[in-house]
Amino acid sequence: MAARTAQHWRGELGYDEPMARHTSWRAGGAARRFYKPADLADLCTFLHDLDPAEPLLWVGLGSNLLVRDGGFPGTVIFTFGALTALDWLDDNTLRVEAGASCARVARETTRRGLIGMEFLAGIPGTMGGALAMNAGAFGGETWPRVTAVETVDRHGRLLLRKAAEFQVGYRSVAGVPGEWFVAAHLRLERGAAAAAQQRIRELLDRRGATQPTQQYSCGSVFRNPPGDYAARLIETAGLKGTRLGGAQVSEKHANFIVNTGNASAADIETLLLQVQAEVARVHGVYLETEVRIVGEAVADAGRHEYE
Ligand SMILES: Cc1cc2nc3c(=O)[nH]c(=O)nc-3n(C[C@H](O)[C@H](O)[C@H](O)COP(=O)(O)OP(=O)(O)OC[C@H]3O[C@@H](n4cnc5c(N)ncnc54)[C@H](O)[C@@H]3O)c2cc1C
Questions:
Q1: Nearest in space to 63 (alpha carbons), one of 142, 135, 160, 11
Q2: Cβ-proximal residues to 14 (8 Å cutoff; 6+ apart), any chain
Q3: Strand pairing partners for 160?
C-alpha cells in the first residue's frame, strides 16, 4: 500500500481492478490500485497521504479510454458515483462535481428552464471527462458555459481557477499540469424548458439512428480533421466493417470501433492503427486519435491478421 501515514481516508480501495468493468469498450487490463473516494474531502485526504511518485489515472465513466491489456501500473481515481454533488450557486450558475454524469447535468439544467447543455444528454461520460475532453456534440461544447473550475493537485490541495486559465480547443484542453478537475461552475441562460427537453429527445433519436449505441465502443475514435469528417475518410477508404480479433470498424458509423464481444485492448488498438495507416495511404490525411490510450501492452497480444 502506498499510503504514507496511517489510513484515515473513507473511500473504497481495490487492487488489480479489471478496467474492462469501468470502460465503455469493456476491454483492457487491470489497475494496480483503484480508489473510489467517499466524497471530495476524502479524495483530498487520500491524495495528501499518497506516495508522490505513484502514477495516477483519473477515470470518470471510461467512455473515451482504452487501458492496454497489461493494465495501469498505478492508482486509478474513479470519480463516477463518488464526486456527485450538484448545487446552484445562484439562479443561473450550477456547481457540478466531476463524477456527475453528463446526462444528469443536461436533465437538471433543462428542468430548471436553463438552456445550453442539452447536447450533453447523449454523451455517456462524466462532467470531469467532459471538461478534460471539451466534449461536444451537435454544435454544442462544454467549455463555453464554464466560468470556473475547481481542481485538486496531487497533494490534495483544492484550487479555484477561472476558465480563462485553460487553452480550450476542439476536443482538447490544456491547463495546469498536475491538477485534475473536481467541479465545474456553469453559467446558463434562461429558456423554455419544454423546448429544451424536446431538443434532448431529438438529439438522442439522432444518435440512435446514426451511431452503434447498443454496442461497446468509445464513441468517435478519431478527431475530425479540419474541414472534413474522420468517418467519411474511413468509409471511403473501404474500411467499414473491417474486423481484427473481436474489434470491428462499425458498420453503422465508420469512426466507431466496436467490441463485438471478446476484443482485447490490443485488438482495438491494432485495428485503430491500421485504420490510421490506411486512411493516410488512401487520402494522405493523418487522423489524430480522440480516445485516450494508457497503460502497458502485453508483449504477444494483438497478433491477428487484418481481415
Ligand atoms: C456511444 C458514445 C458516444 C459518444 N459521443 C460523444 C460525443 O458526441 N461527443 C463527445 O465529445 N464525446 C463523445 N463520446 C466520448 C466520451 O463520452 C466523452 O469524451 C466524455 O467526455 C468522456 O467522459 P468520461 O467521464 O467517460 O471520461 P473518461 O473516459 O473516464 O476519461 C477521458 C479522459 O479524461 C480524463 N479525465 C476523466 N476525468 C477527469 C477529471 N476529473 N479531471 C481530469 N481529467 C479527467 C481521463 O484521465 C482521460 O484522459 C462518446 C462515447 C461513446 C461511448
A1: 135
A2: 33, 34, 35, 36
A3: 150
Is position 12 annotated as part of the catalytic site?
no
- Residue pair 183/97 in contact by the 8 Å Cβ criterion: yes
Residue with C-alpha cell 474522420?
230
60: CA distance to ligand 1 center in Å?
7
Please pick, among 171, 199, 264, 278, the residue that the annotation labels catalytic.
Answer: 171
pLDDT tens per residue across span 230-271:
999 999 999 999 999 999 999 999 999 999 999 999 999 999
Query: What is the residue with the minimal CA distance to atom 41 of ligand 1?
Result: 128
The mean of the pLDDT values for the chain is 94
> What length is written for the chain?
307
Cell of 212: 452503434
> Ligand 1 center to residue 65 CA distance, Å?
7
pTM of the model: 0.95
User: Using the 8-state DSSP alphabet, how is residue 263 labeled?
Assistant: -
Average pLDDT over residues 132-161: 97
**Contact, 186 vs 147, CB < 8 A?**
yes
In this prediction, residue 8 has a pLDDT band, given cuts at 50, 70 and 90, of confident
CB 206 within 8 A of CB 16: no
List residues near ligand 1 (CB under 6 A): 24, 57-65, 79, 98, 123-126, 128-130, 132-133, 135-137, 180-181, 211, 213, 217-219, 292
CA of 170 to the centre of ligand 1 (A): 13
